[in-house]
Amino acid sequence: MTPPTPRSSLVLMYHRMGNPFVRTIVRQQYTIPMIFRMQLAALVHRGYHGVTLADLAGDPVQLTDHFAVTFDDGFESVYRMAFPILTALQVPATIFVVVAGIGKTNEWDVRIGDAPNRMLSTAQIHELAAAGIEIGSHTMTHAQLPELSDAELRAELVDSKHALEDLVQRPVVSLAYPYGAWDRRVRDASADAGYLYGVTTNRGVVNLRSDNLSLPRINIRWNTFTPLLFRKIRRATNEPEMEFRIPPLETRYSRKGQA
Question: What is the pTM for the complete model shown?
């Protein structure tokens, strides 16, 4: 299969790095470091240029042949395993951090039966930001935003933004909706909170028609070898962007809507 030629730009969705065969109920969230390196190298070889999400979405010039690597949640394995690869290949990335999880574990996953994983520490977040990694928000507690009251929703969005800005000493303008759950109210509240860019779990590519607060992504699973990566890109390119999608409870950790 001939890899697609860059036309639109891509936002890739990752979560954790490491062995997908550990005890977990979300095996698809893991990425093996060697495969991660191969994916990035293949994209660069094909003519794509790696940028942060804010740089990609904020500049129309970069909407034709660029890709943004994004990591949801803020797992410590991203610092240990992905950061060295990103540095070696000179590819930036955006990490969406759950503020309440900083220096702790993924309690939102543990509550539904997953194994605890360490999250980024404040020192690691400082180092990542200093190296050019964009730090974005994944809210305060990884809540289901559409289920919250207006006051609770604003607190999740605003408090996390301010906490991360205090931590990295720069504006935090990007947001990933937990579980990929969003609707018009959540989107508008995000804009009111000061976010410029928001990513979903809807499949698609980014172009001049994209709404910057409901950007689609391509979900990268543990078995996304290079041929499958380019097949995913082709499918995303040919598929129209979806409207709002709030995954039902029983599918939040199934094959759809990982975030």
Answer: 0.89
Q: What is the pLDDT of residues 106-163, one digit of tens each?
A: 999 999 999 999 999 999 999 999 999 999 999 999 999 999 999 999 999 999 999 9
Strands, DSSP E only, in 36-194?
49-51, 66-73, 94-97, 134-137, 174-176
Tokens of 254: 């199934």
Domain for residue 88, yes or no? Answer: yes
Residue 253 CB-half CA count within 13 A? 12
- Compute the distance between CA of residue 249 and CA of residue 168 in angstroms, rounded to an integer: 33
Domain count, the chain: 1
Which three-class secondary structure state does DSSP give residue 61?
Answer: helix
| 138 found inside a domain | yes
Residue 190: partners with Cβ closer than 8 Å, 6 or more residues away: 157, 175, 198, 213
Write the single-letter amino acid at 109: D
DSSP 64-98: SSEEEEEEEE-BHHIIIIIHHHHHHHT---EEEE-
Distances in whole angstroms, Cα of residue 65 to Cα of each of 9, 10, 22, 57, 212 = 5, 8, 36, 12, 17
In this structure, is residue 221 part of a structural domain?
Answer: yes
* Tokens at 117, concatenated: 């994983």
